[in-house]
Amino acid sequence: MADEITDVVGEWVAFLSRYCKREVAEVEREFPFKRSLYIDYQTLQASGASGLRLADEVIEKPGKAIGDIRDALRQMTVIDEEKIRKVNIRFHHIERVTGIRDIRAYHIARFVSVQGIIRKTTDVRPRIIEAFFQCPGCGTETRIRQGLGQFEEPDECSNPECKRKKLKLVPTRSRFVDSQKVRVQESPEGLRGGERPQTLDVEVADDLTGSVAPGDRVVFNGILRSKQRVNYGTKSTLFDLYLECSSVEAPEKEFEEVNISEEDEAEIRSLSEDPELYRKITASIAPSIYGNTEVKEAIALQLFGGVAKDLPDGSRLRGDIHMLLVGDPGIAKSQMLRYVVKLSPRGIYTSGKSSTSAGLTATAVKDDFGDGSWTLEAGALVLADMGVAAVDEMDKMAKEDRSALHEAMEQQTISVAKAGITATLRSRCALLGAANPKLGRFDAYAPIAEQINMPPSLLSRFDLIFILTDKPDEKRDSAIANHIVSAHRVGELIMQQQTGPVSPDHADLLAAESVTVDPPIPPEVLRKYVAYSKRHITPLITDEAKEILIAYYLKLRHLADENKPVPVTARQLEALVRLGEASARIRLSRTVEPADAERVVKIVDLCLRQVAYD
Ligand code: ADP
Ligand code: MG
Questions:
Q1: Region 223-233: what's the mean pLDDT?
Q2: Residues in domain MCM C-terminal AAA(+) ATPase (predicted)?
Q3: N or C: which end of the chain has fewer CB within 10 A?
């Protein structure tokens, strides 16, 4: 046994002197500025049979591995004992990621990597790791190492002659480390339809504190720990899990985005050449909803989005297309919003009434999570960074959200400055909003700003605003009615199929009815298509397309009336450009052609006709 232990330490010595010599020397030279020694897990794993064994040990007994590495450093005698005791031993580049929802008791005390999006962070606070006590009677000193969780105090003075009960903590001679608590949530793209995302709390310490913000997508590597629950002062048999963070990394592209295989790519490429492409994509958005073709076409453009540009002067132009559906209740606004989340690689659906305390943007609160210190929590627009945030019932959102939304929509950042916390979070998402008019029905003669409780300054940040009314119209009503009943019938037929024997003409009936509600492109394929296009296609506007857009914009300016609720400003021109780029992206085209320009002029004109001039 003793042999084996020295052996492992010897193996670590061999590994460290071969692969980490520079890092170790840096720690010696630059401590305390460099106070973490990073061990590349993949290098370790690839360093022969002993490396493979050590790598397994890092996963299975990380606590022991860290102790062994400190012993190995002692044997190498290149670093002082003091530094060896204080240096953080960290592991990174672990290739196996465990899903947050797959974490079980089995993982306790093991090394795990989880990937997700940061939901909230506390501010950085000092945490005591070595408490220094002094006996007020005899002066005897006692040091106690502190773990995470409860503070440990000596029962009595260690001097057998004294044995005094109450010892005094001396903060100036104790050791503290910066500490921060973070809550990470599974990424929305990994969730299958409507599952509730699960979270894991992470304790971050020392030089890693302050390195992440809500909304960041990260991989946390660390040791899974458990903490006993306490209910009203009595200890429970249940334990809570948290991760003691070893290192933080940006996720690999493959984890981050939708996975696209070579076959997928071939399918996407061939689909992009389909002459019916635009019609098919439009028809694949919320197929159970009848009509609303223009809205669906606009949603298609929104999914693909324009190109975000960083200009040489440091400013940034957003590429995301914001869009608002205003209208009478019961016309499927909510249904369409919910469907979009299925198609957007990073979609989030939320209601303006707010399901979480963080609301739409972000909040800083003093709560239990931070044990009474400040916590910064990301709202929907931060969590939907790089995707579509579908926000229903925007007319009912909180006042603070409404004002924060101005910055969130245009600069695509959210600034929080409250008490101890100042932060700027990113919200590079496309907003798809829906709002019901205050009085139940839309009044064509009253300004929309008043009817949906949104100032014109906010309305002008939407690239497209659709006003949907529900006027009785016999032909349309009967078409919708047929469509709705067909959708229900398809559902019924599928249920029957699953629950018992079916009649001979069942399949024919199902096929006939499905035609109306089946998307020509299945949602999984469209999602990949969108992700692929956003990743690879950055179109450029051709001169001909540019002329069409500018001519239309000038015409608008000429017609515009300053008293209209949504004034025509340079924002509309930017909207036209973004929409044009999105239209080209749908075809996977690297140029915005006149046909794209005409398509978007038609849509913008339809929207403006309802709100700005008519
Ligand atoms: P809103 O959010 O606009 O108040 P909902 O999305 O809740 O409306 O829709 C109400 C119901 O009416 C939904 O079940 C929806 O499927 C149905 N519905 C409304 N309009 C249509 C339509 N054009 N085609 C199919 N179903 C519709
Ligand atoms: Mg609704």
A1: 86
A2: 277-484
A3: N
Of 303, 215, 206, the closest CA to residue 586 belongs to 303
If we measure between CA atoms, which residue out of 544, 613, 528, 536 comes closest to residue 580? 544
Instruction: Give yes or no for a contact between 61 and 152, defined as CB atoms under 8 angstroms apart.
Output: no
Q: How many CB atoms lie within 10 A of CB 217?
A: 19
Tokens 């028809």: give the residue. 283
8 A C-beta contact, residue 604 and residue 576: yes
Question: Is residue 480 in contact with ligand 1, taking CB distance under 6 Å?
Answer: yes
- Mutation test of ligand 1: which of 292, 293, 299, 331 has the most ligand atoms closer than 8 Å to its C-beta? 331
Q: How far apart are CA 347 and CA 63, in angstroms?
A: 39
Range of weakest confidence among 68-72, 139-143, 419-423, 511-515:
419-423
Tens digit of each residue's pLDDT (9 = 90 or more) over 300-328: 999 999 999 888 888 888 999 999 999 88
Pocket test for ligand 1, best of 484, 485, 488, 489 (most atoms within 8 A of CB): 484
CA proximity to 609, closest of 551, 544, 552: 552
- Cis before 32 (ω within 30): yes
Taking the C-alpha atoms of residue 488 and residue 208, their distance in angstroms, rounded to an integer, is 53
Q: Do residues 474 and 416 make contact, with C-beta atoms less than 8 angstroms apart? A: no
Q: Can you give the pLDDT at residue 255?
A: 45
Residue 536, CB half-sphere, CA atoms under 13 Å: how many? 14
Q: Is the pLDDT of residue 544 over 90?
A: yes
* Cα 533 from chain centre: 20
Ligand 1 site, residue 468, Cβ cutoff 6 A: no
Q: Report how far residue 66's alpha carbon sits from residue 88's, in angstroms, rounded to the nearest whole number.
A: 9
C-beta separation of 321 from 506 below 8 A: no
Q: Determine contact, residues 419/377, Cβ cutoff 8 Å.
A: no
Cα(245)–Cα(202) distance, integer angstroms: 6
CA-wise closest residue to 84 among 130, 28, 136: 28
pLDDT higher at 60 or 506: 60
User: Which residue has the least CA distance to atom 1 on ligand 1?
Assistant: 330
Alpha-carbon span 576 to 380, nearest angstrom: 26
| Residue 496, token pair as written in the block | 């029957």
Beta bridge pairs of residue 88? 36
Helix (H/G/I), strand (E/B), else coil: 255: helix
Q: What distance in Å separates the CA atoms of residue 285 and residue 527, rounded to the nearest whole number?
A: 11
CA angle, 392 then 396 then 398, to 5°: 110
CA distance linking residue 352 with residue 369, whole number of Å: 24
Residue matched to tokens 């036209």? 576
Asked whether residue 194 carries a pLDDT value surpassing 70, the answer given is no
The model's pTM is 0.81
Nearest-angstrom CA–CA distance, 28 and 78? 7
- Radius of gyration of the chain from its Cα atoms, rounded to whole angstroms: 30
Count Cα neighbours of 284 within 13 Å in the Cβ-side half-sphere.
22
The pLDDT assigned to 561 comes to: 64
Report the alpha-carbon distance of residue 604 to residue 158 in Å, rounded: 80
Q: What residue ranges define each of the domains in the chain, with the CATH number in brackets?
A: 2-92 (3.30.1640.10), 100-256 (2.40.50.140)
